[in-house]
Amino acid sequence: MPGRTEQVARDGADDLLPADVLRQAHAEVVVLVLLDEAGDHLDLVWQAGMVPEVAETWSRFPLGAPVAIARSARTGEPLEAGSFRERLIRFPATASVPTADVEGLVTAPVWHPEAGSERTVIGAMSMGFRGTPPAGATQTLIRLAGYAAERVRAAGLPYGSRRPVPDDPAPLPTTSALAHLVRGAGAQGIDQALLETVLLHLPVGVSVLDRELRFTLVNQRAAAINGRTPDEHLGRHLREVLPDLPESFDVELRGVLRTGRPLLNHDIVGRTPGRAGERRWRGSYYPVVGASPTGPIGLAAVFDEVADEETLGVEQLAAERADTLTVLDTLVENAPVGVALLDTGLRYLKINRTLADWNGRSVADHLGRRLPDLLPELAPLVEPVMREVAETGVVRDVETVTAGRTWLSSFFGVPGPGGRTAAVALFVTEVTRRRREERRARHVQAFTEALSQAVSVAEVALAVGTAGARAAEANVASVALLDELGRQLRFAPTGQESPERWRVLTVDADHPIAVAYRSDEPAYYPELAAMLREYPQLTEAQARTGHAAWAMMPMRGRGTAAGMLTFAYRDGQAFDDEQRSLLATLAGLAGQALARAQLYEREHRTALRLQRSLLPSRLPAIPGVDLAAVYVAGDAAEVGGDFYDVFAVAGSAGREWTVVIGDVAGRGVDAASVTGLARHTLRITAATDEPADALRRLHTRLWEDTDIDRFLTVVCGRLRLHDEGAELLLASGGHPPALVRRADASVDVVTVPGMLVGAFPEVRLEQRAVPLAPGDTVLLYTDGVLEARGPAGLFGQDRLVELLRTAPDTAPERLVAHVRAGVEAYQHGPASDDIAIVALRVGRAAED
């Protein structure tokens, strides 16, 4: 995005809104625009949820644009639309946030950050939702707009400001109330500019009135009949413009608004300022249907003055009607949309050349013939719709796909004598390109979402092979990654692997992927012959793939290419500028995700190495006791704070042992340093002191060190062995309780009161002795076990107790594996926190 966005990047003000604003607002899209310094355009300065291709088209637009976000900036009023249809009706230039998945919308002005007696608007914000905006969405957006205003000022971002003013009752110059008429008539696919030209200059009167019977549009003929200029109509009530019309006329028009049924071929006699004496009009009045639950949002009138045929010469009347038909015929024939008229038997009465050419036949071939005779493959789809229109007069829109092209057809009844449908009119427009762009936007957005959820390199490659292939409209998408030595490109598994001999390519290979990597430029092969002319050695391998076209794109993460992204197609491709731009965008997104995943994996490996250094390399052999432990790293790049240790008590001749398990708050280097300090301090103190005293000395060490701002939960136990079994003396600093599975499979929860170590100036700790008989098993663990989140919430202590009670084997090595498997089976996805588990089982009586 030009201009303002670059300014934001230079100033470092990329935090105009919270990074997690989409989650906070439960929205799909959030957009912030600011007035330019002249105050007549809006610039997109921040957005979340829009794909770059879509955001680029909205980088700058006029303040007078007929979209909701611009209206909030003009009027200073928040707006809310509950559905995409409502937005189309109220703002004919479609949605202010152009994302296919967005339905509901709220907008709000961004006020000048310095409150004063005369508040001014500096921009506006909008939020889009998949469905109806949730309760309180407008208030949430108003708060975000205030936050954004302060951040804009803090960033020193230039902006314009203006006093808000209400929109005029008349339509803005860039939009038209005709959009309502067009939507209400069901001709959604018709070029609006063409219809405005046609309706405004028709030789019959056309007017649009709102629910209060105020004029929102009149064409030239209607203004002439009424004897006032078009400007003297807009925003005024029917009675202000035409005070001498019969009072019954208001009642009849309100009946159209109340019932939603049109008033067809209706005659009215009255006086107007245009000419003295009584005059007669004949017109039809149609409801304009919107999203309002109270009924039509207005009505459209099509009328003309009729003379008394007894006093007007037949020749003159025929001439006037012939002139009108000539104008209409000319408009229909030259319209850039398909137009046809069929009788109630679905025989063509009229068709313009545009639609005839699309049908692949001449105009003459259509006239008098039925639709099924001309287009048998299309007739089953549209004939029932046309019959419904002919019988009921309803308006129907139908979208069809033929020969790879998409068409939007609108059918509506043409009224005849007595209000019956005399014919069916058909408007057709091609929407192939529009639908393709909408589909591409959806797929690019889905690809972006898939990459955002991919953590590892393998997950990025899988996202490319699935969502990336769909976004590129390719049959296969594959990723080749540069190895750590920078000598080979290795294809990552995506489920759509390349031929076996090309699974690994040396960077200097005579292969198009390797050549494109060395050149650091994309390579496009629109057809098989083009590739084989340069690389005839690939003839046999490519024949087996069945692909006819390829695009090979370097994936750049942090400046340099980290690999190659290849798209393969079964059919030949043009690879025009639009397609190349799309593929470059996809490669850029994949490259950024790949760089992020590689960084994560490097940091994760480093964290694991550091974590292993904080744990004992092996557990000691204790006579008469079986011992096992397991450590599971959470799904995070930084080192965690979980630890455990087992060591002999000094001078006990192997009869007393210290068992420790703990969890330092937080993650990262600081947590790791406290973990190491805690473990080594306890090695010294617990080797001579009882558990509670050892924890008190650790607390003093942490609290008195001003450079340490971490605390921990910890259990320290002294295992005393004797001939009949053992005794475990436990002290706990705020740690989850130990569990003891007895030989009879019952489970005791051993709770020992105690405070967090290192958190408060004073620490209160107690001890509890737990007798252990042969066959009893003790389980110590960190809170990652209890806090594993699954379909029914946290795993919790009750599930852990039941898991321990029903364990088929209490051998410590198999028991810790059983607990680990149970937690992993319960939780959604990888563990969010580290897990440490220690199990010890008292066996036969200890030998001296």
TrEMBL record:
<feature type="domain" description="PAS">
    <location>
        <begin position="191"/>
        <end position="260"/>
    </location>
</feature>
<dbReference type="InterPro" id="IPR003018">
    <property type="entry name" value="GAF"/>
</dbReference>
<dbReference type="InterPro" id="IPR000014">
    <property type="entry name" value="PAS"/>
</dbReference>
<dbReference type="InterPro" id="IPR036457">
    <property type="entry name" value="PPM-type-like_dom_sf"/>
</dbReference>
<dbReference type="Pfam" id="PF13185">
    <property type="entry name" value="GAF_2"/>
</dbReference>
<dbReference type="Pfam" id="PF08448">
    <property type="entry name" value="PAS_4"/>
</dbReference>
<dbReference type="InterPro" id="IPR001932">
    <property type="entry name" value="PPM-type_phosphatase-like_dom"/>
</dbReference>
<dbReference type="GO" id="GO:0016791">
    <property type="term" value="F:phosphatase activity"/>
</dbReference>
<dbReference type="InterPro" id="IPR052016">
    <property type="entry name" value="Bact_Sigma-Reg"/>
</dbReference>
<keyword id="KW-0378">Hydrolase</keyword>
<protein>
    <submittedName>
        <fullName>Serine phosphatase RsbU, regulator of sigma subunit</fullName>
    </submittedName>
</protein>
<dbReference type="InterPro" id="IPR013656">
    <property type="entry name" value="PAS_4"/>
</dbReference>
<dbReference type="Pfam" id="PF07228">
    <property type="entry name" value="SpoIIE"/>
</dbReference>
<dbReference type="InterPro" id="IPR035965">
    <property type="entry name" value="PAS-like_dom_sf"/>
</dbReference>
<dbReference type="InterPro" id="IPR029016">
    <property type="entry name" value="GAF-like_dom_sf"/>
</dbReference>
